[in-house]
Each structure stands twice: as structure tokens, then as C-alpha cells.
């Protein structure tokens, strides 16, 4: 049996091609967390019609794009910053705030820790507990905050646990952080997939709190990781000014501007995506909840975390089993606080979901 020694990020299809000898076009990626609907017809047409946009520099202020994002998020354009993926904005925010001691709720996306370390800061983790199904115990968490911490990072819904924090809980956290002079960075990359997005998103709180910086992107929900278009929402004008002063001009190209202005208004694509993910996620969750081979955690994002209950099977075994059938899942053993009993996979189209579940459960699965 082929055993992989390396661990793969959701986008490492080149590496898979090399190690397993499978052509990347043939692999269905359940590990990239990208919307399976792909590019919408409206976006395809807008990009081809407006290809001449590349003959001029984009507007330095991105005024009309920011207006469009503000309408989409229900806030004001003055509260929006745009970046080359949310990754550029995470990086700029950390360079400017320069945290010495950050607290990250984990297990979570590893990029925050990397950026904090690049700036010479230390990252401490507050672990979500399996016994709580990876839900945050807000009261216990708040008792761990103190003035020595200068930044708190929360991914909501969280990657890889798919658990979420409600806006009401976030309000308590922001109050406590305010008292301790702590900035809060909230990564809402997956929030649009949540059924209860209106109860989760912290965007309305940016009107009342000046210690919150929210990140969003187009890579996952709008299936455009190659476009590199992300944005941030904050009500803190000093922070906004500092980031704009530091930021290189034109990091969002003219085609990404055209794409953004089309995507955020593409109500039909948004509706179809939410409907597809919601229905498939519920069907997968139901099926796995009843199955003795796995424990599955209630998902809010477009992906599920599952714990393997069979003693003799590891996450690496399942990764190998799936990749040999040209499906790539995430072996979660490299996440802090998780081990080789956890896998994560995203929601794709019905036929692909059934194929993956049949592989994971070693029997023919039909979803209903
Ligand atoms: C939680 C989270 N935030 C941010 C990113 C990166 O987003 P972007 O492509 O917008 O830079 C990822 C990518 O996997 C992610 O999982």
C-alpha cells in the first residue's frame, strides 16, 4: 500500500500527482473546501466581455468594488479594505498590530501562527475540547484572558472543526477583550455557508466595537482561489489608515475587480450555493451520525470533521484509500490537538458525496 509521508494542503494537487501518479484533473478535491458549483455563467460571461479591463490600472481606492462588497455585507464602504486574498490582509494586520503574545482558538488554520511568528510574536492556543464537540465554552475561555495577551484569533466557522460561535457569544468575548486591551481578528472565510449566518457573522458588531478586524474572501464560497480577492471589515479608522498606508498599490488586479463586482451581485449563484451545501451537508451529517464507524461534529462550514472510531484504521489509511479512488480528503493529524483519528472533507455535488461516503464506509451509499 502506498503511504504518504508528507501532509497535503487542500491545494497540493501537484504533489499528489507526483507521489501517487494520478493526474490532477482526475482528482476530486474534498480537502480544498471550495464550492463545487465552480465559476458561475454570469461571471464567465462578465470576465470574457470585460477582458479589456486589463489595459488600465485599477482604481487605487477600489471605490466601486468596496461599495459593492459593503452592500453585500450590509455595512459601509468606509469599513471595507480589499486585499490579494484574505492572506494579504492577515499578513498586513499582523505586521501593523505586531502582536507579542497572541491567543488562538485551536485547532485551526495554521497561517495565523506562521504570520505571528514571522513578526517575532508567540502564539498560545486555547484548545476546543472534543468532550464539548469542539464547541467553545465561552465562560471558561473568558477566564483565560489577561492583559499579557495582545491579539486573539478566532476562525468562525472554524477550520477544521466546522464549529461556530454566535454573535451574542462574540459580543461577550469582545467586551472582555476590550477590558484587557486585546485586538480580535475574526476569520469569516466560511461564514456564508452557514445556515444560521445571520446569527454568526460579526459584521454588525463592527459598528460598536473598534477592537475587531473581520476577514472574508472569495476563494471558498465563490470558488475562486486563483483570483486572489479577499476583504476585511473593521470600524477602526486608525487601523484602516495604517493598513492603507502600508499596503502596496494595485494588489487586486483589474479582472479581480470585474469578478468581484459580478460575484457579490450574483444572487442566483449565491442562492444555489447555499441550497446545495445546506441540503448535502445535512444529508451527510445525518448519515454519519447514525454510523458506528465515525463520530461526526455538527458542521456550520461547508466541510465536516469526523473521528474514526474503528481502532485499526487511521486518518492516513483513509487518505490512501480515498486517493487511490481519485478523491482527496484532509488527514487532520498535523493539526494541533487532533491526532491520526481525524479526517476533514468538504461538501461537493451529490454524486461525488455518495462516492466519497461509499469509500469511507466501505459500502454502497445513497444519500436521501
Ligand atoms: C480559515 C481560512 N482562512 C483563510 C484562508 C485563505 O484564504 P484566501 O484564499 O482568501 O487567502 C483559508 C484557506 O484555506 C482558510 O481555510
Topology:
Layout: H1 13-20, E1 28-29, H2 41-49, H3 63-73, E2 80-83, H4 85-97, E3 101-106, H5 111-118, E4 122-127, H6 138-142, E5 151-155, H7 167-179, E6 183-187, H8 197-200, E7 212-217, E8 230-233, H9 237-246, H10 254-263, H11 267-289, E9 294-296, E10 303-308, H12 315-324, E11 327-328, E12 330-331, E13 342-346, H13 350-361
Parallel strand pairs: 1-11, 3-4, 3-5, 5-6, 6-7
Antiparallel strand pairs: 2-8, 7-8, 9-10, 10-13, 12-13
Helix pairs in contact: 2-10, 3-10, 4-5
The chain binds pyridoxal-5'-phosphate (PLP).
In short:
With 368 residues, the chain is an alpha/beta fold. It has helices at 13-20, 41-49, 63-73, 85-97, 111-118, 138-142, 167-179, 197-200, 237-246, 254-263, 267-289, 315-324, 350-361; strands at 28-29, 80-83, 101-106, 122-127, 151-155, 183-187, 212-217, 230-233, 294-296, 303-308, 327-328, 330-331, 342-346.
